[in-house]
Amino acid sequence: MCEFSLTTPVVFIIFNRPDTTKQVFAEIRRAKPSKLLVIADGPRENRPDDIAKCANTRAIIEEVDWDCEVLKKYSNVNLGCGRRPATGLDWVFSIVEEAIILEDDCLPHETFFQYCQQLLEKYRSDERIMSISGDNFQFGRRRTQDSYYFSRYTQTCGWATWRRAWKYYDFDMLLWPEVRDGRWLFDIFGNMQVATHAGQRHFQVSGGVGVAEYWHRMFEIVYNKKIDAWDFQFTLAAFLQSGLHILPNINLISNIGYGPEATHTQNPRSHLANVPIEAMHFPLRHPQFVIRDAWADAFLQANNFS
């Protein structure tokens, strides 16, 4: 592999898991970014054991031993796994124009960083592209020999984006009532057709109704704060901009955090847990056109969003 210098800022989101944090940090150390921005949540009031766990996790960041500017956004109180990443990334993109983002349980292949950096540069001014992910959940299925494909679904277990895309992010989803009440999700996921019966115009939706209903349900749950999340809001923001996301044709990120200590990923037997990672080959093979892979999206919807 040719010599690679990581000049793109890296964001590391941590909390109270020193075991997984140490593994991910080891890969960040190997990559040696010139700028590291660390977002940390505070201990929960009802979990006194968090005090030591959070302190031990933050201590890992002090092991930076390469030439690196380290910026920290640490909370003394617990903001939760929704608001802490959201406000932390607001802070990040008030400082930098683009960044590679890892959470404390998202273990990257070493080639993930070069892949992100090259694509951040290539699509920097392309408003169609909202993010670059390291996740591939196609389990060997691929349509082309290209290095990556385009999707309407964001995947944020190891990803990258720009300030220009993050500016659409809204944690409170203030546009959701208008989208919900106007049934705009059917315009995204189905084909709206106009039929005339007895002189009356009727709107019919063909295809994608079940998918629209799924996302309607999830966005309504998140909007009403019934789950503590931050990533559904970015998915909605991208939908509303007709945005596309880049996903690799091989998997570059393994989620090593599934288990009883996790908040949303507690089943260690999940098909999304500990997915093997492999090397991205360079030079990257770029698609010749920007069209989302509907076949890959259908598989992803059926297996990840159902």
How would you sum up this structure, described in words?
The chain is α/β, with parallel strands linked by helices. The protein folds into 2 domains: 10-169 and 242-304, Spore Coat Polysaccharide Biosynthesis Protein SpsA, Chain A, CATH 3.90.550.10; 172-229, no CATH class. It is 33% helix and 20% strand. It contains 10 helices and 12 strands. The strands form 3 sheets. The protein has an 8-stranded mixed β-sheet, sandwiched between helices. A two-stranded antiparallel ribbon has the order 5-12. Strands 9-10 form a two-stranded antiparallel sheet. It is globular. It starts with 9 loop residues before the first strand and ends with a helix. The model is unreliable at 192-196 and 201-206 (pLDDT under 50).
Question: Care to give the gist of this entry?
Answer:
The protein is of the alpha/beta class. It is 33% helix and 20% strand.
- Could you give the count of β-strands? 12
Largest sheet: 8 strands, mixed
* Rg on CA atoms, Å: 20 Å
**What letter string, H or E per element, gives the SSE order?**
EHEHEHEEHEEEHHHEEHHEEH
- The gross shape turns out to be globular
Helical segment count: 10
**Name of the CATH homologous superfamily of the largest domain:** Spore Coat Polysaccharide Biosynthesis Protein SpsA, Chain A
CATH class of the largest domain: Alpha Beta
Q: Enumerate the spans where pLDDT stays under 50 for 5 or more consecutive residues.
A: 192-196, 201-206
Q: Look up the CATH topology of the largest domain.
A: Spore Coat Polysaccharide Biosynthesis Protein SpsA, Chain A
Helix content: 25-40%
What is the strand content?
15-25%
Mean pLDDT: 91
Overall SS class? alpha/beta
> Which CATH architecture of the largest domain?
Alpha-Beta Complex
How many domains comprise the coordinates? 2
Distance between the termini: 39 Å
